[in-house]
Amino acid sequence: MEKRSIDLLTNGGLLSVLDVGSGTGFDCWSFMIHFGEGTKITGVDSSKIMIEEATIRYGVKYPQINFITASVEHLPFKNNTYSATHCERLLCHLPSPNTAIEEIIRVTKPGGRVVVTEADYGTTIIHSDLLALTERLVNLLCISITNHRIGRQLSGTLAANGLKDIVIETNNLVFRSLNEFDRASGLISSLESAVEKGVLTNNEKTAWLEDQRNKDEKGQFFASTTFFTVAGNV
Q: Which Gene3D superfamilies does the record associate with it (predicted)?
């Protein structure tokens, strides 16, 4: 998805790129490598720890990359500041994604590009012999994520906020190991939370995990979630 996001960001020469929810800064570094050292790149994240790590990894070595601790719902930039703005796998965790989208569009220059990628966790499928229980568990996973259906809402929300010439692309992220899927989704902690809340019994959790671990050992584990990338012009 990263390479495609870079391709979609391009709209002529880019003088400045904003990465919202930049984490440890890898995407910012990728943008610098692709667009060249003449492009100013700013990474924003609400986590001070993430910003400190990103600065150590990339900010010190590459002065054209700047990292700032800030909320996407209150970006500390003037209107029409950036040539392009990128945001990936952030809006699903926010209580007010529309406010974040308004801010992303506000700080992007007229004619500039916006590229946003989000999962739709309602599309998650997991291979299991315990079909009814698996459907319940996928639903429990979904409701543990603040905006688990943001993927299907993304293009409409961006259009409602004025984004034009919208392009929509999908990517199915496939997981072939239980640990890999758990790292990406937080599945096991969601199950433990469900048991604590009484919406899932401990026996159900144990039986389901035993089935999945058995498939994992045999190389039969499979899970998939669809991601949506929406790009357009301000």
A: Vaccinia Virus protein VP39
CB atoms within 10 A of CB 217: 10
The answer to whether 69 and 96 are in contact (CB under 8 A) is no
Token representation of residue 26: 């890898």
Q: What single-letter amino acid sits at 234?
A: V
Question: Tokens 């943001």 belong to which residue?
Answer: 150
DSSP strand pairing (40-45 vs 16-20): parallel
Tens-digit pLDDT profile for residues 26-50: 999 999 999 888 899 999 999 999 9
Tell me what the pLDDT averaged over the chain comes to. Answer: 94
Which among 233, 234, 227 is positioned nearest to 91, based on CA atoms?
A: 227
pTM here?
0.91
Give how far the C-alpha of residue 158 lies from the chain's centroid of Cα atoms, to the nearest Å.
Answer: 16
